[in-house]
Specification:
There is one protein chain. With about 325 residues, the protein is α+β, with helices and mostly antiparallel strands. Helix content is about 65%, strand content about 10%. It has 10 helices and 6 strands. It has helices spanning about 20-40, 45-50, 65-70, 105-120, 135-160, 165-190, 195-225, 230-260, 270-295, 315-319; strands at about 45, 50-55, 80-85, 85-95, 125-130, 190. The strands form 2 sheets. The protein has a 4-stranded antiparallel sheet with strand order 3-4-2-5. The protein is elongated. The two termini are about 35 Å apart.
């Protein structure tokens, strides 16, 4: 039985010759994503902004303008409404009540649910969540700090494990993946909650895993082919790891596709972030991170500085 090969043997694609186009496209997409984040902003969930969120499922899709007017008439503050997953499922966001006693929030939720049951027969409330402003500020700060420290830690590891050029290229590529993901949420206005922070950290982990594999092969070939032109060496390294990169990305996308279809609206944002991150991470690993090493002045001779002592490596014995 023949094995399935998505990438033929002896594939020789000239990735490096397209690096300037890739750099231009990357810069353009990064600027566009930053502009979208600045202009449209992120649709932060209750986890990060505080307040009360009620998920209501109606028998028939309601008019959001009419529903907003009715909720505002309940005297519970200015309401923010958004469909969630299906036209008949609506997220109702409300500010925290002015009262500070423990039962104030429960009374607010009960008031809204009771009035909506009176006006809309068959309405079902799937969930109601409450987060105080202090907790939401802390979650926003810690979530952002976790992502930043993850990226910096990965860049420092690449710097110490290889040369400083690998650390810089890794930081640039992972930061690009993160900005692309946030830009996607800015344009789609999908809700950003703690699940999305988990998805972003997972994307960072996947992205760096792919980059480390390619960087390791580049490092190995630098010791094996010390006189080879750096452009040819990077093309060789990327092509050698291409079957593994493509197979890993496709299998992950297949699993995420099933989760997107059958996982329900609660996991939709998480799954969308993961799928985009896998695609963008694969692109940046192949076209951005590796080719950037040339612009940063990496040469095969630099591998001699961190050459391990003792018995020669497999690559050196073969060479």
């Amino acid at each position: 039985m023949r094995l399935l090969k998505l990438v033929p043997d002896n594939t020789n694609i000239g990735f490096v010759r397209l690096r300037y186009w890739a750099f231009g496209l990357t810069a353009l997409l990064t600027v566009a994503a930053c502009a979208l984040i600045g202009l449209r902003g992120l649709n932060l969930g209750v986890d990060f902004v505080g307040g009360v969120m009620i998920e209501a499922k109606f028998a028939t899709p309601p008019s959001l303008d009419r529903l907003r007017t009715e909720v505002d008439a309940f005297g519970v503050g200015e309401a923010s409404l958004q469909t969630f997953g299906a036209p008949n499922v609506v997220l109702i966001r409300l500010p925290l009540p002015a009262e500070t006693d423990e039962g104030a929030t429960n009374r607010l939720v009960s008031k809204v649910q009771g009035n909506l049951r009176t006006k809309y027969s068959g309405v079902v409330f799937n969930r109601a969540e409450t987060v105080t402003g202090k907790v939401s500020d802390e979650l926003l700060w810690r979530g952002g700090l976790a992502v930043l420290l993850a990226i910096l830690g990965i860049a420092v590891f690449s710097w110490l494990r290889y040369e400083w050029q690998f650390g810089v290229s890794t930081f640039v590529a992972v930061a690009h993946d993160l900005i692309m993901t946030l830009g996607f949420f800015a344009i789609t206005q999908l809700e950003v909650d703690l699940n999305i922070v988990a998805a972003v950290l997972t994307v960072v982990g996947y992205s760096i895993n792919d980059k480390i594999v390619i960087d390791d092969r580049i490092r190995e070939n630098m010791r094996k082919y010390r006189t080879m032109d750096m452009r040819a060496l990077i093309d060789l390294s990327v092509n050698e790891t291409l079957p593994r990169t493509v197979m890993t990305s496709i299998t992950i996308l297949l699993a995420l596709g099933a989760l997107l279809i059958f996982g329900g609206p609660v996991l939709r944002g998480f799954t969308a972030a993961m799928m985009l991150g896998v695609i963008v991470g694969t692109y940046s690993s192949i076209y951005v991170s590796s080719s950037l090493l040339i612009s940063l002045g990496l040469t095969p001779q630099l591998a001699e500085r961190k050459r391990p002592s003792g018995p020669a490596s497999n690559a050196e014995r073969v060479g």
